[in-house]
Amino acid sequence: MKTPYEILGAEGVQQLACAFYDAMDELPEVRGIRAMHAQDLTDVKQKLSDYLTGWMGGPSLYQAKQGTVCLTEPHKPYSIGPEETEQWLLCFNKALEKIAASDELKQMLEQPIKRIAAAVQNRQHALASKDDPNIIASC
Ligand code: HEM
């Protein structure tokens, strides 16, 4: 059985990472996580591409450049709860569509990508909505 990297190739993984951050820039539903990122997405696009390359069975580019594959640490400064994880996964699914990934590849990635997203999540509950009638306004 081929690895996702063998299916996509180096260029395909790069296209996926670019399509991912393009989706983050374009989709109104993911404004929340877009706001956590720098204005210029060039660096993080490259980092995601490097990370996914190794994760999908290709050369360990992220490990070689960053000295680790641990993603918990770089995500610590951000409050990532269930909605943020959903938004991230939405971008990932849009990116897979954009690069016309096969159903086989989508199926291969579906559970494993959800597992990393769950590992990166560092807040288990949703934030209380301002509009929630059970919240007593403090202002
Ligand atoms: C679960 C929801 C997630 C949120 C809200 C999120 C958000 C972020 C943010 C705000 C950054 C910093 C960007 C910047 O410097 O401008 C970042 C970096 C990064 N994210 Fe995520 N992320 C999530 C999940 C993931 C997942 C599942 C992966 C991998 C498959 C991933 C891979 C990366 C990588 C490789 C970096 C760069 C880390 C570094 O600085 O070395 N993220 N993410």
TrEMBL record:
Keywords: Heme, Iron, Metal-binding, Transport. GO terms for molecular function: heme binding; metal ion binding; oxygen binding; oxygen carrier activity. It comes from the Bacteria. It holds the Pfam family Bac_globin. Belongs to the truncated hemoglobin family. Group II subfamily. This is Globin. It comes from Halioxenophilus aromaticivorans. The lineage of its organism: Bacteria, Pseudomonadati, Pseudomonadota, Gammaproteobacteria, Alteromonadales.
